């Protein structure tokens, strides 16, 4: 799919002597906050010795893709045959370690490996950006300054604790680190030393601590052993799409009474309260999701990501591809088209609570209200067809 970029509100500042001087002044001021949060002067001086403003990080933060992938294109990549095959190889290669992690934390080893595959292609792409300069630059920039300030302090604490030194603390431009891409505050809260070497090392070629830390994260996020993330379902003719979405929960038996059935056949066991998701609208597959969907979403809240992890883990367990087809002739809205959709919905009396170009709960709710008013299937799905009806 073609890619373009849409500049956000502010231009990327040039890296000149004045910018660097302002950055150095900001660092000097931030030091007092770091020391107040338990960072020693020695740690600060060591970690900040070679830190300078990184304009490439700001460029990545300020610009977003104008064109977005459809969920089916995303899942084709996330759960590619190559990724499934490599995941099965990793399950064999690290079998004893993964079994021990599963016993300790009660999280399916296939889910842990799926996250590993999604986050870094099983450790192949862990990121090479120096974390401290990147976080310092983002904290200074101010667009999400408080968030990145907290990440910077957490990263300094990790160095101070001796888990890794500043030279080896590398990751993505936004501060995600290691095999399973922990941000520093999540690392502080959930990372574990599973191999007993005295360090919670998620950066080295040995993925043991990273995999165990991911399992610990999911366990603390409410993972229930023996429960699926979700199951693909078939909705009956005339189904009320107003019941879809995470805001409506029913037992599997109650959904069955409404005609919802497993796409693979058979009865869906009572895994607790469940919701129905239609991530590509009424024309695409439907899923009954359970509590473990929410646990995975603590790692990354995007529904496409959670479905990707869940489906990849299912494939690693030997299950097949999706039963129902995705509406592949549909084209996802671009970022500017999403803004236009929000503007037109709001102007028509269906308030989206802002026009940020992101289809979140408020926009989906507005779409549902509009669809109901127009006699359309109220699936809350943003399409070009929907936008055209508003023009």
TrEMBL record:
Gene Ontology molecular function terms on file: peptidoglycan lytic transglycosylase activity
Name under which the protein is recorded: Murein transglycosylase
A Pfam family this chain is assigned to: PG_binding_1
Xref: NCBIfam families: MltB_2
Domain Transglycosylase SLT, first and last residues per copy: 23-314
Record-level GO BP terms: peptidoglycan catabolic process
Domain Peptidoglycan binding-like: 339-390
